[in-house]
Design a protein that fits this description.
Radius of gyration: 23 Å
Mean pLDDT: 88
Distance between the termini: 62 Å
Number of strands: 11
Shape: globular
Structural class: alpha/beta
Order of helices and strands: HHHHHHEEHEHEHEEEHEEEHEHHH
Number of helices: 14
Strand content: 5-15%
Helix content: 40-55%
Low-confidence stretches: none
Length: 413
Amino acid sequence: MVHLEAVHLGWEPLVTTWEEKMAAEMPEEYLKPLCQNIREVCTIMLPFVRKNCKEMVGSVDANLITSALQLISSFIGTEGGRLDLKKSQLPDLQIIVMNYLTFALCWSLGANLHDSSRQTFSDKFRQEMKKRFLQYPDGDIYDYGIDPETHKLQLWVEKIPPFHYDPAKSFFEILVPTGDTTKYMFLLNTLIGAGYNVLITGETGVGKSVVTKDFLTNAPEHIVSACVNFSGKTTTKNLQDAFEGNLQAKGKTLLGPPGGKKMIFFIDDVNMPQLDRYGSQPPCELLRQCIDAGGFYDTKKLVFKQIKDTRFVCACAPPGGGRNAVTPRLFRHFNMIWVPDLSENSMRTIFSSILKGFLELNEQSGLSIFADPVIKASVDIYQKAINDFLPTPSKCHYTFNLRDLSKVVQGML
């Protein structure tokens, strides 16, 4: 076997290999223009992303290309309820393929970008896609999702489900549907359903864990899940115990979920483990080996244990403050999605819905009309605090995030 550095090989062989594999799934009249468009757009957009955009958790070019190809494969194919272009009688199939292409490229090349770079990427990406796809809508590209039933681009806000306040739930488990939560739920459902790993990144308090746990709680019956929290003291033994404790022994050297099920491991704070003397993070390396080689070595019995029907969803905040940069050898296996800070409008929607739901439990009090002004004042004070009270060497504790605002609302309930 000959190993070549990615810098010498580039990303184009990935597209060529995918094209050969998809030849059995798609007619050539759709596959050839699709791959041509991928090559043209990525040749322009990848250097643009590296030069003009900011990623808080770094990616490599091969990872972004693979993410785009995996997203397209999640929608188009001959298995699992995907769009079968060989049998489909739908009109305008070329437009449908372009809809899926634009969605996949947006949520791969631009999915991991920081909030400050998204508008820059959106403008450039729309400009490039308009040259090839005249029906591409105007506006922010991140505002548009895709409907797998109609195969059309659709605003996320049109797909938001209604919110019902549940007093039995603990405060930090409540998820109020917004355009943001709807899009991340859809991406998780699409990628996990197709058998791919997902990495959710974002600043502390933006709701990474809440969204993921809510998705896993309401996942289809054939999906079982387990949660593993990494910390600075996590060892490879802890991760190995989590695998062996949550998976069933299918044979002497085979582990897997119960029959007919798929196992999803949610690993929170995946970048927290301390570095060893060689600069690596042993639990992350064991996780990489499980994805790369399909299992791990049992150090007591000295046998290789295989893991089947298992996928991973990881979450982490950017490096810094005890968190370390994770090797691209692990993160290249994931579709990386950055969750931006909530907009002021989203904050008001979320906290107003919770407070109003709580106050409406006692209809006779008539206090629910005050929910909106109370939340507006709270959000305004929070915004003023993070703008005026900046951290300094003498006041290094002035680091406010959404959890501080959440605790204020929690105190009212």
